Structures are given as structure tokens and as C-alpha cells.
Amino acid sequence: MRKKQITNFSGKVTRGSGDGTKIGFPTANILPNIDISGLKYGVYACDIYIEKKPYKGVAHYGPRAVFGETKPQFEVHILDFSRDIYERTVKVILGEFIRETIKFNSMEELRIQIINDINFIGGR
């Protein structure tokens, strides 16, 4: 039996380490309400619904290798958004797969790639 492709889910926004904010790209760390372990590691365009209002975002699912982490997590940089949404439930609709996860050698390499990912989806 073929596994159903994950295209959307809801989840609670939890506190992360703040690393995204330190390089200028804060992320909402989302604890999904379903098992997303079958989702391909990488970066996706997405829509994220906060209080039923849609925002564009760039999502990453997988280990954050540049930070030395091995456990996968799901996080979204929400374009044109800066409110505190900790502990709120959001809905994520995945769009186009942009690229696979990359192990960057520096925070600057990661920052440049995030800019490229945002530009890819037509943001900023």
C-alpha cells in the first residue's frame, strides 16, 4: 500500500533556539498534529494560515545540520510577518518542493541560500 503524500497539516508553534532570528530570518517552529516522518527532507514553498489568514512562507523539514542537529524538525519563515504566535495552532499547506536539505559551512552561506529560496517563491 502506497503512503499518502503529506500536503497539509496543522500544528502548534513552539519556541525554538532563536537561530533563525539571529541571521535575520525568524522561523515558526511547528509541532505537527500528524506524523510527517514520510515527508521528504528539504525546503518547500508553503502557505501558512494564522487565525484563518493566509501568509506565504518558506518551510524547512529535516535536521538543521549547520547547527549540528540530527533530529528533524519543521519550521517556516513567514514572509511579511512579525507577530508573536507561540502556542497558537496554525495550518500549513505545502506547495512546490524547492530543494533538498544542504549542509552549509557557515551561517552566511545559509543566509544567502534562504534569500535565494525566498526569491524563488517570489517573496520580498
UniProtKB/TrEMBL annotation:
EC number: 2.7.1.26
InterPro entries, alphabetized: Riboflavin_kinase (IPR023468), Riboflavin_kinase_bac/euk (IPR015865), Riboflavin_kinase_dom_sf (IPR023465)
One record GO biological process: riboflavin biosynthetic process
Keywords associated with the record: ATP-binding, Flavoprotein, FMN, Kinase, Nucleotide-binding, Transferase
Record keyword Transferase present: yes
Top-level class of the enzyme under EC nomenclature: transferase
Catalytic reactions on record: riboflavin + ATP = FMN + ADP + H(+)
Riboflavin kinase domain boundaries: 9-122
GO-annotated molecular function: ATP binding; riboflavin kinase activity
The protein's name in its UniProt record: riboflavin kinase
Organism expressing this protein natively: Candidatus Dojkabacteria bacterium
